[in-house]
Design a protein that fits this description.
The structure is a homodimer. Chain A is α/β, with parallel strands linked by helices and about 425 residues long. Chain A is about 25% helix and about 25% strand. In chain A, helix 5 packs across helix 6 and helix 10 packs across helix 11. Chains A, B: Belongs to the C-glycoside deglycosidase beta subunit family.
Amino acid sequence: MLDRNVIQGRGFRNVVEDGRVTGFQLVLRNPNYRGVAASLLDGVEVVVDGERVPDSVPLWTLQGRTFTLDELRATTDVRWQLDEPATITVPRPGGLATGVHDVEVLVYLRRPYFPPMVSRTTFTASAKAVLVPPAPEGGLRYGVSTYSYTADVYTLMTLEDVLADVADLGATGIEILGEGNVPGYPSPDPAWIDTWHGLLQRYGLTATNYGSWVDTEMWRDRALTGEEAAAQLQLDLRLAHRLGFTSVRPKFGVTSWQLDPHPVWEEAVLRSLDLAADLDVVICPEIHAPTPIRHPVTQGYVDLIERTGSKHFKLLIDTGIFNTAPVLELSEEIEVGDDGEVPEHLRPLAVPMADLVEVLPHVHFIQAKFAEVDDDLHDLHVPWGEIVPTLLEHGWSGWLSSEYEGRREPYRGADQVRRQHALLRSLAGAR
Amino acid sequence: MLDRNVIQGRGFRNVVEDGRVTGFQLVLRNPNYRGVAASLLDGVEVVVDGERVPDSVPLWTLQGRTFTLDELRATTDVRWQLDEPATITVPRPGGLATGVHDVEVLVYLRRPYFPPMVSRTTFTASAKAVLVPPAPEGGLRYGVSTYSYTADVYTLMTLEDVLADVADLGATGIEILGEGNVPGYPSPDPAWIDTWHGLLQRYGLTATNYGSWVDTEMWRDRALTGEEAAAQLQLDLRLAHRLGFTSVRPKFGVTSWQLDPHPVWEEAVLRSLDLAADLDVVICPEIHAPTPIRHPVTQGYVDLIERTGSKHFKLLIDTGIFNTAPVLELSEEIEVGDDGEVPEHLRPLAVPMADLVEVLPHVHFIQAKFAEVDDDLHDLHVPWGEIVPTLLEHGWSGWLSSEYEGRREPYRGADQVRRQHALLRSLAGAR
């Protein structure tokens, strides 16, 4: 699906020719209610951060061909279809800086069925567009979780649109939720599995982590047995492996405010370690607020790693544990008390970097959880300026997988993920 | 695509069992970020127009099977997937009245990975839902134009979603814009044409009118010749015929504020009448404000009908000519002066019914243009209470095809079309 805004989220980038940045591009959907012959287009004015580019300057790319405005006016066999966006190229040596830009466009279109004096129509649109720099070489790997697009997937975006978004911002890893993104879960059509692999290839993405659940309180009258819990975990390990994922995060039911996992967790994991080794898929319990790193739950996982010596049971860190400010942005997923007091489970844990460093050898994957990156690429809650250098200094080279969990406004997830990647890569590239 | 609101626009209807109305249904998408085993669902409260139905009462239909709440809790092999909506059936003898209802739902879901005291989560959603009565037997035929969904098609809805919406509200005719809705226009892939016919069959829809354009000012230095204009019209006649349409509305470029068509119109039409007869497709010029029925332009069309005796050139009436109040709702398609004065071309023509009656034998198709039907099913601009009885009294039995042209807010077209059909059918059924 196209973005409803005429200015699309995807496709905003600097243009590099012969190693030099010569301008920038943006992608527009046709703002009219019909497709038109390209000869009826009459230019596009682009205003970036207040700087105006006259309507005759930008180049138009339509149906795979690029035109100046004069060439466009003379065309006989090119169209701007409703379902085929145009790429607008604006010459500008050096291009645009990394980060959030105010972009406005005025698209001019001649409509012969309007009276001649008014047949040149103006369509305007504006957006905050996020320019994401290329990922720095070496070190961290950059991915995104479909969770970031909650409420937009299947409504505004297909799963393919999500993958296209992730690829467009220059990330190379895709994390999914098994019970969210696999049609026909737990038994997808084999044709869908082929489609999935085709999509990974098309968008140049690596399947990273697969989120799963072990709903210990599946029924009201009894909890899952260890055998049932293991069966659920193994089902997901097999499915994740078929889809190309290399780790599975099982979310077990909990028994306390401190998120102590149901005791079956250990049996379920132990019974599944051989299978995990056979499939070469790492089982990753999630360290998630309000559980910090120095905590019996985390220690229980580390004990199991050390006791078994398994290479297929490691930690997954959710960066919400590093928050230095409470997340007070409401979403369907975040609850705040009526009294205005920040409830205990929302108080920032501000886990120190030293604790992270201590367990880092056991950390397989990082969910880069966040709620808001502002127009200046400042994260309101997560101290990326400490986290990213710590990871790099200690030579950690796994996936940082964006997990946006702020307000679920339409298209906000896609926009925020771009901002977060611009921020993370700026920090990593500055070193 | 699903509607972003948890309460879907489609599927809101009364339930008829053995000829009696026993309740109503609504369709919900899963409000969570993951799909879940149905045993984790814990009821849904439905509040309609302030009347509360307790959470244990509604029935759930998931993956083709229907359950009471107790049955749902005991299931082992049913899921509420993110991409598969649930149908909720609420018992209520007599069902709900035609029109707009305030609907609120509270969906309860157990989430074992939350601390036990808070693991029963509530998801709320609300909507104004429109109950559309079945189309009255005989007389008028009810259709919808894809134009109604401008800006939502290809962004929030696929073309198939539009057809599904049209079928869901009980309309049987679909009108399209050739240059808007045919991928690859003017040369669609033959496979797409098969897909199109498959969709018509699947949704029980008849292809009605095909909107086309003859852009006489296609190029800036010269107008189309009569031959070129005829070629464009004939291209669309052939394509419309392949897609199963029985009429084509060509929109010619105009030369005046009164929308006088470019003089080539007549040559283009005359050169195409034989082809139209061969294909049995009616060419329908559109009578559209600010051109009323008693006007030289309309008279020119009637003259051609009478002169040629052709059965393949008839009038299409856009009901905007009957407006009794100016449309001051702004949309991308409607312009209003900065001085607050209603510009001449927006002043309501209020064409009298007597004028309609006079040309009715020549009228092939009616585009039921409108901009707003309020919560009481009152159209703010179009006097349907006069138009519908006039058409029925004079035995006109063509298509009334909804053409929503109000504010282009997301999903508003779909909602307004349901309201208009509820209104039109109430008026027709009351006779």
